[in-house]
Design brief:
Distance between the termini: 102 Å
Strand order of the largest sheet: 2-1-3-6-7-8
Mean pLDDT: 91
Low-confidence stretches: none
Shape: globular
Number of strands: 8
Strand content: 5-15%
Helix content: 40-55%
CATH superfamily of one domain: SGNH hydrolase
Structural class: alpha/beta
Number of helices: 13
Order of helices and strands: HHEHEHEHHEEHHEHHEHEHH
CATH class of one domain: Alpha Beta
Length: about 400
């Protein structure tokens, strides 16, 4: 027993030394493995947020995963870029407004922070967050989408900076980021076709193989509009929407920010919808509400671009709701004082003095368009009679 005890006592220090070395080696291995994974994600950069900023054809130049993550990505990029001007609004802003058009002395560096399907409440919350993340913001271009004013607005949510930090970490150090980094490299090695994605300045671009106007089809539009009218008839303007707009205006004023309210183009199809279904009065109420505010700019006057015929190869529209980048670029150039190539009445300011004339011209144009497009009218009225009467 004495010999065994002596042997055990002599081995104890060696076991402790081996155990410590094992823990140290394990720790070093984990750190090295984590560093390799983090380096790979940073190099592949699936979301375009890596500080390395390497873009190589066949490796990571196509960011197919930079899509449908606006709520996580855009606050982080506002913090990262510290823009002078931000765009706020729905997918209509997201898909049509290229911030590079406004770069310069007046607007500085611009960023498209629009969130698809956003509400006025969410826009207010986003602005409150952005003013904390980027105190140097001087200009805000915010869409005032008609249909947002016909929906009750929920209380303004609170967007915390801690959530922005958590999202930033997840975009660069997470299992999902690793998986999508692998998928990004795999995709780039297989093809150079560019799918729909979000550009570095925040705006959406369609698939490289898409055909403009391909989804601008009469029957699906008519069917969906009439079905929506049956299940959820369009409501009048909501008081909560007006309250949110008042709060946004006050917020911009409190931060000494120049706020421009944008009425983006509406297609003639949608104007006929409002006219036929008895909602034109709601549109007039909307115009008269906007006329009470300062700096409201409209791009929805009736002309050859808002009445562009539906066909493959359309220039000004992606679908009956979303104007194209060409339309948005023309709007931003006009806003910056360059009206070359734009219809004569492309841009107008909605003011108390101008509102009646703007409404009268738009209604007259909608009626005249209906006369000139009997096929559309026939299909729309037939579906309306079948479903609603």
């Amino acid at each position: 027993m004495g010999i065994l005890n002596l042997a055990a006592n002599s081995l104890a220090p060696q076991r402790g030394s081996i155990s410590q070395k094992f823990v140290l080696m394990l720790f070093v291995s984990v750190v090295a493995f984590t560093a390799v994974i983090a380096g790979f994600v940073a190099l592949a950069d699936p979301y375009g947020v890596s500080p390395i900023k390497v873009a190589r054809s066949g490796l990571n130049s196509t960011k197919l995963k930079r899509l449908n993550i606006d709520r996580q990505l855009k606050p982080y990029e506002v913090l990262r870029y510290q823009p002078d001007t931000v765009f706020i609004g729905t997918s209509r802003v997201n898909q049509s407004l290229d911030p590079a058009i406004l770069d310069g002395a007046r607007f500085g560096l611009s960023y498209n922070a629009a969130i698809p399907a956003s509400t006025l409440s969410e826009n207010e919350a986003s602005l409150r967050l952005f003013f904390r993340l980027a105190p140097g913001i001087k200009n805000v271009l915010m869409e005032v989408f008609f249909y947002n004013f016909t929906r009750d607005q929920s209380p303004t949510p609170e967007f915390a900076i801690s959530q922005v930090a958590a999202d930033a970490v997840a975009l660069q150090f997470s299992f999902q980021a690793l998986r999508q980094a692998i998928e990004t490299v795999q995709y780039n090695r297989i093809t150079d076709a560019i799918p729909a994605h979000m550009e570095p300045r925040g705006y959406w671009v369609p698939d490289s193989w898409s055909k403009p106007g391909e989804i601008f089809q009469l029957q699906p539009f008519v069917t969906s509009i009439i079905a929506a009218e049956r299940s959820h008839p369009l409501q009048g303007l909501k008081q909560s929407a007006e309250v949110r707009l008042d709060q946004i205006v006050a917020l911009a004023k409190a931060h000494d920010v120049n706020l421009t309210l944008l009425v983006l183009p509406s297609h003639a199809w949608d104007d006929y919808r409002l006219l036929s279904l008895g909602h034109w009065g709601k549109l007039e109420d909307y115009y008269r509400l906007l006329a009470r505010y300062q700096n409201v700019v409209s791009f929805t006057q009736p002309n050859e671009v808002t009445q562009e015929p539906a066909r493959i190869g359309m220039r000004w529209w992606y679908d009956p709701v979303h104007p194209s980048l060409d339309m948005g670029r023309m709007a931003l150039r006009a806003l910056n004082g360059d009206l070359s190539g734009a219809p004569r009445n492309f841009m107008a300011r909605i003011t108390p003095e101008a509102v009646d004339q703007l409404l009268a011209k738009r209604k007259a144009a909608a009626k005249q368009w209906a006369v000139e497009n009997p096929e559309f009218v026939e299909q729309f009225e037939a579906e309306k009679a079948r479903v609603l009467h």
